[in-house]
Here is the input.
Amino acid sequence: MPVSPMNRREFVQKSAVTGAAVAVAGALTAGEADAAEQRPRTWSFSILGTTDLHSHVFDWDYYKDAAYSDKAGNSVGVARVATLIKQQRAAKGEHRVLLVDAGDIIQGTSLAYYFARVQPITDKGAPKHPMAVAMNHMRYDAAALGNHEFNYGIEVLRKFEQECHFPLLGANALDAKTLKPAFPPYTVKRICVPGAPDIKVGILGLTNPGIALWDKDNVSGKMVFPGLVEQAKKYVPRLRALGCDVVFLTDHSGLDGSSSWGDSLPYVENASNLVAEQVPGIDAILVGHTHVEVPSYTVKNAETGDEVLLSEPYCWGYRLSVFDFELELHHGRWKVTSKTAQTLDPKDVDEDPEIKKLLEADHELVVKYVNTAVGTCTQDLSAAESCWKDVPIMDFIHKVQMETVKAGLSASDAALPLISVAAPFSRTADIPQGSVTIKDIAGLYIYDNTLYGKKLTGAQLKDYLEFAAKYYYQVPAAPRSTPRPSPTPTSSGTTCTTRRRASTTRSTSRRPRAPGSRTSRTTAPRSPTTRSSSSPSTTTGPTAVRGIRTSPPPTSPTAPPTRSAS
Here is the structure.
């Protein structure tokens, strides 16, 4: 049936409706355009970083039973750092600040030892680990696993992980059987930008391959630890594929490309600079492990030519790293246009009163514990000269070690000559005359060590002693052809003769290695000394030896770093 043609009135009415719709649509488009013009085109945010806190909560030295002090005037503890963090959040905006740590959290002070060994957090009804309480209060967003996280065993570490309100990241901490991550490799945080897309920040955590050596007893057959570069190559592209606008790494690994283990492992110990150079797509790296201060350092990525920003905030809460990022919005995606880093010193701010309130009781409990008397001593035993002199305090360590090992030997092994190997780890250690407390003994080795009995041949012992001697700076003897100086007359008519004597002395400085260096090196032990309960009867037969694995103390704040704190 034919359709009736539209009359004039219908045409006018329909045209009016259509025109109104077009007008409304035009108005909406204009409104959207105005809104688009009002959207922020740039934004800024910050990532704050700590590392190697080693369970320093308060500005306190448990070994001296006094407020912490050193020649540089540093303060220690997250309680002061927490105040700096509050200041940063207040100045920049709570929603513009992320907080990250680079590992070594739950070991290093008497506080850490108490809640791992005396009143373990794994006990039923035990209080939470003080570092979990403090870091939860400070609202950390993520932390990398440090090698010292494994010192008290995986069970203690897992309990600490459960107590934290933030993830412990370890992209290269893998289950030994499945080779799948034993901990979360990364986390993605969002920075809210009103009227614009969120800024997505991917945080990747990497730990130290040396765990496989240093905590072999705790991790062997349970976890494996491949290299940082290898795992970063796997996960950085994944974070970019997830739409991350910024990729930030937290590495428990230094940035000079060195290793303390020679060829014992196929991976580099201090590899943060290598990760930056060899893995494209990284914006910045929080560095840890080496106990040095590096406020800001850049490495050019070999593939893209982009600059990667790195910073290391020393250790123990001495400093706080601050990474500041500037971004621009391009076609709906945020791009980093500027990034800077610096370190802040918390020594001039007060400790956070809320952390003091939360943990004062735990602190006082540990203070009481370390002041518990355990014996007496007839004279003061100082370690001040132990690096180059035979001192009684080292004899005491050797005696305890040999008696302890001997008690655990079989009859055949007990017949072997027994020697002791120990390192004078602290030159400030001192066992006082009179009453001796736990803190006096604990001060000998501030990092927990493991007692081992090892069978060695005479040849192996000789090799070890030669290796240990590398600790000392070798002063060459004067050539024999050099004539002695003639006697010099004195005012009294007598003569005095000047003689040059070759000597072996302790080196007081190390030549720094550039952070870009890839050369691995082997670090000599810290002035080991030996004692023998009986002289070996042969240079080739087996010997029962006791060895202590030690971790170097924090070095002075220098850049670039050249030492590791395993």
Remarks:
- The first strand starts at residue 42 and ends at 50.
- Confidence is low (pLDDT under 50) at residues 20-25, 487-566.
- The chain is about 30% helix and 25% strand.
- The radius of gyration is 31 Å.
